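subagent[fold] <- orchestrator: predict structure for attached chain, return tokens only, no commentary.
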Amino acid sequence: MSREEDNGEARRHFPSRRADKNSVAEPSQRQDSANLDSYWEGESEATVPSRSAVAGRSARRKARRKKRTIAAVVILVVIGLITGASVIAAKELGGISGIISGGEDYEGKGSGEVIIEIPEGASGKTIGTILEKEGVIADADVFADIFKKNSLAQGVQAGRFRLHKRMSSREALAMLLDPTSKADIKVTIPPGFTVKQIKTRLQETAGINADQVAEAFAD
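subagent[fold] -> orchestrator:
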């Protein structure tokens, strides 16, 4: 038998190492390819929910920002309404000047007429209390402060004065310093009048009530 025939038989019955390697490598390569495809499919599947989650978080942040903006606008509107109502109330109860001075005060010269009586030696606080009680001014403390700072205030005399309702403290003080505001009462008592007749004349002419007349006669 020739060498060539021997080699042919060897090739027929004993495959070469290269053929063995190719036959073994094909399943391994197919497995590696399958594993790689599976990996990229997993990456793709993982990426989709991740993007959805990011979009969801962004939407929630926008919703929170919108709610905060709406809440801020509502708060500003409420503050504006409260401030406006406070200004209107301040004007009704005495004006902004009273707020600045630390208390309430009316504005202007007031209206109507009220007769008040200032006792001898009354202080600014005492006069302010009388005026507030009679509805002339809004706050006795505001009047007392203005009275203290005005050098002419000491010229207020005891007696009866015609003032107005709901006056500013400055206007009330000005009227108390004005001699024409004095409410001097002149009552003529004819000779021979009895005590009862005099009391009746005082009530009718001077506008003094019965209790005040009785108190005056008891003094």
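orchestrator: received. Logging for downstream: Confidence is low (pLDDT under 50) at residues 4-10, 14-25, 89-101. Strands lie at 111-118, 159-165.
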